[in-house]
Specification:
Blueprint lengths: L12 H20 L3 E2 L5 E3 H8 L4 H6 L1 E4 L5 E4 L4 H10 L9 E10 L11 E10 L4 H17 L7 E6 L7 H15 L6 H9 L1 H4 L8 H5 L10 H16 L5 E2 L11 E8 L8 E7 L3 H4 L7 E7 H7 L8 H4 L3 E5 L2 H16 L4 E3 L6 H11 L3 E5 L1 H6 L1 E6 L5 E5 L3 H7 L5
Parallel strand pairs: 1-5, 7-8, 12-13, 12-14
Antiparallel strand pairs: 2-4, 3-4, 5-6, 6-11, 7-9, 9-10, 10-11, 14-15, 15-16
Helix pairs in contact: 1-5, 5-10, 6-7, 14-17
Bound molecules: histidyl-adenosine monophosphate.
Histidyl-adenosine monophosphate binds next to strand 6, strand 10, strand 11 and helix 12.
Length: 424
């Protein structure tokens, strides 16, 4: 037997209903805020992610599915959606559209991480990006929309919104902080794990994210970025928080919130839960004002987030699925014999064309067994056509619950079943 690859999961029909509910809610909420769907390729040139996400990040260093295709070009399965979406924005000249250009996309992402509960190698994101607008009111609107999605899913009370400002490269506040932080981390290297010491040199802000208890005393006393923010970044953050308050979005400032991708500046945020153990981030995002330019586009700012769908689905109660019932057969047609099967097929097709889900027997089983199957399928009605009925041009329509049955002309079968409406 060939099993699925480690860290990769099937979404079985019993779960798919919850996925549909999340996807439907996302589309409704995002579209209400003016976002349009964009569908993107699953793989891109490797260079896009190396440049976009950052050479020094864990994602680029250790987690990408990268391979040479048959022409020798290096391509990578997308580990996230932002870089590809911006590539499309630049490539198709979408920056000429009225700003902010608001786009969302849904789909699978790939990261070679150590699989554990809530962490997979193929996982799914709902990704949202608003491009070409740097107003702090947009930062707040994006966060409020994320919270609205979870309110719609009935999960808002189980999540907390954490926000932070990472300052800016261009204004110089983050480089100043980085210098200070590196000096501090080097001076306290003895109290840090191997990985933190390595990060201190390569990607110092990420060191703050280390979860090892032995590193916490040093990291907790590290200089905080907030104290280094320049006047513009300070104002932007304060205004973002004012708009969040005006929108009624409760949030906490989390000075240690650093993200795993290098492109962020200023506002960053995460939606976290206490219910999923170590993988506590349900969604994360932030502003990336220099990224579009870095990827060869215009100097447009941008902000966005991605939601981890597996983690959302895990929080939803089992009852919270949609769609499976409406697709389960509502009518089971039981022809008895080959001639009856052929005689009744057009009616089954006509019913399906009118939106009724129909299951048709093959005509080769005994009536008792077919009725048993109808019971297991949970259909409302069965249509029985035996030789005698066929000769009279009729079918028997039987309501499963009450057991009552009546004869209906084959030519009137579709209308008769439709007339039974929701009970069909
Ligand atoms: P990220 O924080 O790397 O951000 O991922 C966003 C969310 O995807 C996480 O909060 C988590 O819920 C989910 N996720 C990430 N990795 C895994 C995994 N291995 N298994 C299951 N779920 C996972 C980004 O990807 C950015 N592109 C978000 C963004 C968009 N920033 C601006 N625009």
């Amino acid at each position: 037997m060939i099993r699925s690859v480690r860290g990769v999961h099937d979404i079985l029909p019993a779960e798919a209903g919850k996925w549909r509910r999340v996807e439907r809610a996302a589309r409704e909420v995002f579209e209400a805020y003016g976002y349009e769907e964009i569908r993107l390729p699953l793989f891109e040139r490797t260079e896009l992610f190396a440049r976009g996400i950052g050479e020094a990040t864990d994602i680029v260093q250790k987690e990408m599915y990268t391979f040479d295709d048959r022409s020798g070009e290096s391509v990578t399965l997308r580990p996230e959606a932002t870089a590809g979406l911006l590539r499309a924005y630049i490539e198709h000249g979408l920056h000429v559209l009225p700003k902010p250009v608001k786009l969302y996309t849904l789909g699978a992402m790939f990261r070679y991480e150590r699989p554990q509960a809530g962490r997979y190698r193929q996982f799914h994101q709902l990704d949202v990006e608003a491009l070409g607008d740097e107003h702090a009111a947009l930062d707040a609107e994006v966060i409020a929309m994320l919270v609205e999605l979870f309110r719609r899913l009935g999960l808002a009370d189980r999540l907390s919104v954490e926000v932070n400002s990472l300052g800016d490269e261009a204004s110089g506040c983050r480089p100043r902080y980085r210098t200070e932080l590196v000096a501090y981390l080097r001076a306290h290297a003895a109290g840090l794990c191997e990985e933190c010491r390595e990060r201190a040199e390569k990607n110092p802000l990420r060191a703050l994210d280390c979860k090892r208890p032995e590193c916490r005393p040093v990291l907790d006393r590290a200089p905080a970025l907030g104290a280094f923010l320049c006047a513009d970044c300070t104002t932007h953050f304060a205004r973002t928080r004012e708009y969040l308050a005006a929108l009624g979005v409760r949030h906490v400032v989390s000075p240690r919130l650093v993200r795993g991708l290098d492109y962020y500046v200023r506002t960053t945020f995460e939606l976290t839960t206490a219910e999923l153990g170590a993988q506590n981030a349900i969604a994360g995002g932030g502003r990336y004002d220099g990224l579009i330019k870095l990827l060869g586009g215009p100097p447009d700012p941008g902000i966005g987030f991605a939601v981890g769908v597996e983690r959302v689905v895990q929080l939803l109660p089992d009852a919270d699925r949609e769609g499976s019932a409406e697709h389960r057969a509502r009518v089971f047609v039981i022809p008895l014999g080959e001639a009856a099967l052929k005689g009744v097929l057009p009616a089954a097709t006509a019913l399906r064309a009118r939106g009724v889900a129909v299951e048709v027997g093959h005509g080769d089983r005994k009536l008792g067994r077919e009725l048993e199957r109808a019971g297991r399928l949970g259909v409302g009605h069965v249509v029985i056509v035996g030789e005698a009925e066929l000769e009279r041009g009729e079918a028997i329509v039987k309501e499963m619950k009450s057991g009552t049955q009546r004869a209906v002309k084959l030519g009137e079968l579709v209308e008769a079943l439709l007339a039974l409406g929701g009970r069909a």
